């Protein structure tokens, strides 16, 4: 089946509103160009008038999707932003995930709230470690993947080599949608071999994409008059090889997560951006069903349901605000609705829900499945909470991970203990850190997925809570949640190991291990005890 033979869901007035929603994330390794692509997608969608490069200097704009001070200073994304924009009758909800090496659990949980993902790969470096990690999270949930091979305006690997790596390393069928016409100093543009279009620049070779030329094929006179002969020879050969070696686009295989369409481009020079956003609009998945404790929640259901996948405190430094990011699963949400907070067993009025664009917000009068709304609250809502129109049901699938870095908190001013603990509790609810309260000793231990998060914690406690802290090393290097089917056996184990035990913020027992050898030794010695690296976030009413 070819791309042109495949029909996308109708996006007209007769279609259910949720069918016009496209909720997706962008995943990548550091420096692959994710933030630049995010900016250009927003620019293409009309969400902003000017895109700022990541390493902006002087009077040039900062990246608009990075609102936190440390993000602006380092030119990276350390939290996940949500940006909503519309184009041609389609509402796009772009969830921006950190791409640097030391991202947090927030990144993983954001991927539970999307229906598709764009995987950005550097044309020269190929698939890197962080990309592979994030891809595996997507695979666990069968999230459809669109691949963008970025930076083709620089010297990079052969396109066929890039396609083969994606196919072999990720066990995905690949179908190229566009093809680079040259690379590096010989870069002339991008060829859409199915639509027979040549995207190039009227400003000169390798400049910003501003011209689209309809062509009959790689040997069209419009190409031969512009492109070097050896570049056209390679293009023609590759198009022929690609047509024979790779399957045609199959929308069903794509939606099931078995096939990835591959776009070659340069986000910096605007090559491939229009093609990706048009593809998502026409062929990307509408909101999918969501697993829950007693049944599956379907987007076409009339009653509203949604789940909190992220909590962010102090997005507006002028106000001590606290925003819960809620992904809607079903129904038609209206501002002012009263929804049941299932964990607490209480009804809350959602009177000021908001849509986001980085720092900028607007009131959300109506929202549909697939949309992400912000619900201001004072700490009632936590990650993993479910909101419904009355049904007792919990959305499942939100993970918590055992931290890979543990540090003891050192407080500079002991008079600021209350502020420090409040700040750490808030950051723990965001998923930035985990808090462990040792059974012996008063100083809290924090756990993070990556070392960079420690710098973020220090910065945010100083700026947002007026509290200066430091971190001291501890003898432990990993933590595991402790579980056992037999309460007596569990209690006996906990009583005899108090020196290595702590409680997390939900008072669950956690064993602190010194090294991997100790994990194996203690596990073998206590076969009835389970030491969990991950746990499902499903809150009980009393937690």
Question: What attributes characterize this protein structure?
Answer:
543 residues; 8-stranded antiparallel sheet; single chain; 28% strand; alpha+beta; 24% helix; 33 strands; 13 helices
List the helices and strands and how they pair.
Blueprint: E1 21-28, H1 34-44, H2 69-74, E2 81-87, E3 90-96, H3 105-110, E4 116-122, H4 129-140, E5 145-150, H5 159-170, E6 173-176, E7 179-181, E8 189-192, E9 197-200, E10 211-214, H6 221-224, H7 229-245, H8 251-255, E11 259-264, H9 273-283, E12 290-291, E13 296-297, E14 305-313, E15 322-330, E16 333-334, E17 338-341, E18 346-349, E19 354-357, E20 360-363, E21 366-367, E22 372-376, E23 386-388, E24 399-401, E25 405-411, H10 417-430, E26 434-438, E27 445-448, H11 452-465, E28 469-473, E29 478-483, H12 487-495, E30 501-503, E31 509-513, H13 516-525, E32 530-532, E33 534-536
3D architecture notes:
This protein is an alpha+beta fold. The protein is built from 13 helices and 33 strands. The strands form eight sheets. It has an eight-stranded antiparallel sheet with strand order 28-25-27-26-30-31-29-32. A seven-stranded mixed sheet has the order 2-3-1-4-5-11-6, with helices on both faces. A six-stranded antiparallel sheet has the order 18-17-23-14-15-22. It is globular and about 80 Å long. 47% of the residues are buried. The N terminus is likely disordered.
Structure described in brief:
The chain has an eight-stranded antiparallel β-sheet with strand order 28-25-27-26-30-31-29-32. Strands 2-3-1-4-5-11-6 form a seven-stranded mixed β-sheet, sandwiched between helices. It has 543 residues and is an alpha+beta fold.
């Amino acid at each position: 089946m070819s791309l042109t033979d495949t029909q996308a869901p109708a996006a007209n007035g007769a279609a259910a509103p949720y069918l016009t929603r496209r909720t997706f994330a962008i995943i990548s390794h550091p420096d692959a160009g994710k933030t630049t692509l995010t900016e250009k997608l927003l620019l293409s969608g009309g969400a902003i008038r000017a895109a700022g490069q990541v390493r902006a200097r002087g009077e040039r704009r900062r990246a608009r999707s990075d609102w936190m001070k440390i993000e602006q200073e380092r030119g990276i994304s350390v939290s996940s932003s949500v940006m909503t924009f519309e184009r041609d009758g389609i509402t796009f909800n772009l969830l921006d995930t950190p791409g640097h090496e030391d991202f947090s659990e927030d990144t993983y949980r954001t991927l539970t709230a999307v229906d598709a993902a764009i995987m950005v790969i550097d044309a020269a470096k190929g698939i890197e470690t962080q990309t592979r990690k994030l891809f595996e999270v997507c695979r666990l949930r069968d999230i459809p993947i669109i691949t963008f091979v970025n930076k083709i305006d620089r010297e990079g690997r052969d396109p066929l080599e890039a396609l083969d790596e994606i196919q072999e390393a990720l066990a995905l069928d690949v179908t190229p949608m566009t093809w680079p016409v040259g690379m590096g100093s010989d870069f002339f543009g991008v060829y859409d071999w199915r639509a027979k279009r040549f995207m190039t620049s009227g400003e000169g070779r390798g400049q910003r994409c501003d011209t689209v030329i309809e062509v009959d094929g790689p040997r069209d006179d419009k190409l031969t008059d512009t492109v070097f002969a050896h570049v056209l020879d390679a293009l023609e050969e590759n198009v022929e090889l690609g047509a024979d070696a790779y399957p045609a686009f199959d929308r069903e295989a794509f939606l099931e997560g078995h096939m990835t369409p591959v776009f070659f481009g340069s986000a910096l020079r605007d090559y491939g951006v229009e093609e990706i956003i048009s593809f998502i609009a026409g062929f990307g998945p509408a909101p999918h069903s969501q697993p829950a404790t007693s049944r599956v929640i379907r987007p076409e259901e009339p009653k509203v349901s949604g789940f909190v996948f992220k909590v962010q405190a102090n997005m507006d430094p002028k106000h001590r605000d606290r925003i819960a990011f809620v992904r809607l699963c079903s129904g038609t949400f209206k501002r002012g609705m009263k929804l049941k907070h299932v964990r607490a067993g209480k009804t809350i009025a959602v009177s000021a829900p908001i849509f986001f664009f980085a720092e900028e917000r607007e009131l959300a009068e109506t929202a549909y499945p697939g949309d992400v709304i912000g619900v201001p609250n004072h700490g009632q809502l936590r990650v993993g909470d479910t909101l419904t129109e009355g049904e007792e049901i919990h959305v499942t699938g939100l993970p918590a991970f055992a931290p890979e870095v543990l540090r003891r908190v050192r407080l500079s001013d002991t008079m600021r203990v209350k502020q420090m603990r409040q700040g750490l509790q808030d950051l723990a609810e965001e998923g930035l850190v985990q808090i462990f309260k040792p059974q012996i000793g008063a100083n809290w231990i924090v756990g993070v997925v990556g070392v960079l998060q420690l710098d973020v914690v220090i910065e945010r406690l100083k700026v947002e809570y007026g509290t200066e802290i430091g971190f001291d090393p501890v003898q432990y290097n990993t933590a595991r949640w402790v579980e056992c089917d037999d309460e007596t056996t569990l209690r006996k184990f906990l009583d005899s190991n108090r020196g290595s035990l702590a409680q997390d913020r939900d008072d669950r027992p956690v064993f602190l291990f010194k090294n991997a050898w100790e994990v194996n030794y203690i596990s073998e010695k206590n076969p009835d005890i389970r030491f969990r690296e991950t746990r499902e976030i499903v809150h009980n009413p009393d937690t």
